[in-house]
Design brief:
The complex is a heterodimer of chains A (about 120) and B (about 120). With about 120 residues, chain A is an alpha+beta fold. Helix content of chain A is about 20%, strand content about 50%. Chain A contains 3 helices and 7 strands. Chain A has a 4-stranded mixed β-sheet. In chain A, β2 (about 30-40) and β3 form a beta hairpin. Chain A is elongated, with a radius of gyration of 15 Å. Chain B has 3 helices and 7 strands, in the order αβαβββββαβ. Chain B has a 4-stranded mixed β-sheet with strand order 1-7-4-5. With about 120 residues, chain B is of the alpha+beta class. In chain B, a hairpin with a 5-residue loop joins β2 (about 30-40) and β3. Chain B is elongated, with a radius of gyration of 15 Å. Classes of the chains: A alpha+beta (about 120), B alpha+beta (about 120). The interface of A and B includes residues 7, 92 and 98 of A.
Chain lengths: ~120, ~120
């Protein structure tokens, strides 16, 4: 595969990504964009731009002792999860906007078989 | 691409860079200047950010944070679409009031593709 094909694969991954908006909305967050960069060695970088919906803060559930928001991404081949990756950020010091990076490593053959991707937020 | 062409693109990118000053202020930091330096031989581009504190000599990290560093982040966009993002850590205990931090990224043809950038700080 050449550079253009890897870039097209990244664009395809974006189309395959199902963003669970409600999971972000519960925390007063929204996803502005999702971008994938896929290298020829099977390394995937996923950048998720997020912002708060109102004000500049993450709104944690009452009585929650969580300190972090965990952004998670699941990769599927048909209905089978082949990987779940995550990245966390400090919920109490969120500034209203950030870009979160998630990474994943797989054989190119597996990447070409990915049929769907889920992106959601939870508490860490 | 020649070095001259690369320099023109770097200057153009600098003009189209948004600095989220309020994110720096939150940690008692301010940006004195920025500069991009790209390579015509590989796909690497470096962003240099000259930083100073607003008052005193320390980065102010809230007490409720478990972190002892901040991250200076840069997003590169091509016509409004995010191409890539990278960051560099700046340690609270290591920063003494002034420094120049480098955020580098290697992305296919980044110098010729990036039309704008955004710089901010997060924890």
């Amino acid at each position: 595969m050449n550079e253009i094909e890897f870039e097209n694969l990244g664009i395809e991954f974006r189309k395959l990504t199902n963003i669970f908006d409600e999971s972000f909305k519960k925390l007063n967050l929204k996803v502005l964009s999702v971008t994938y960069n896929i290298s020829d060695n099977g390394f995937i970088e996923c950048w998720v731009e997020i912002s708060s919906i109102s004000g500049n803060e993450v709104i944690l559930p009452p009585k929650s002792s969580a300190d972090e928001v965990e952004i998670k991404i699941n990769f599927y081949i048909n209905d089978r999860i082949i990987s779940s990756e995550s990245s966390t950020f400090d919920a109490k010091n969120f500034i209203g906007y950030d870009t979160i990076e998630l990474t994943y490593y797989a054989e190119i053959k597996s990447l070409l078989e990915i049929t769907s991707i889920k992106l959601y937020a939870t508490l860490g | 691409m020649t070095e001259q062409e690369c320099e023109i693109l770097e200057n153009e990118l600098k003009k189209n860079t948004e600095i989220l000053d309020n994110t720096f202020e939150r940690f008692n930091l301010k940006v004195i200047s920025i500069a991009f330096s790209g390579s015509v031989f590989n796909n690497h581009i470096s962003l240099y950010v000259e930083l100073t504190t607003i008052s005193g000599n320390k980065i102010k990290i809230p007490r409720n944070s478990y972190s002892d560093y901040v991250k200076v982040k840069v997003n590169f966009y091509e016509n409004g679409n995010l191409l890539c993002s990278d960051s560099t850590k700046v340690g609270r205990d290591e920063f003494s009031g002034y420094d120049t931090v480098e955020v580098g990224t290697s992305y296919a043809n980044i110098v010729s593709r990036a039309t704008s950038a955004r710089i901010f700080v997060a924890i």
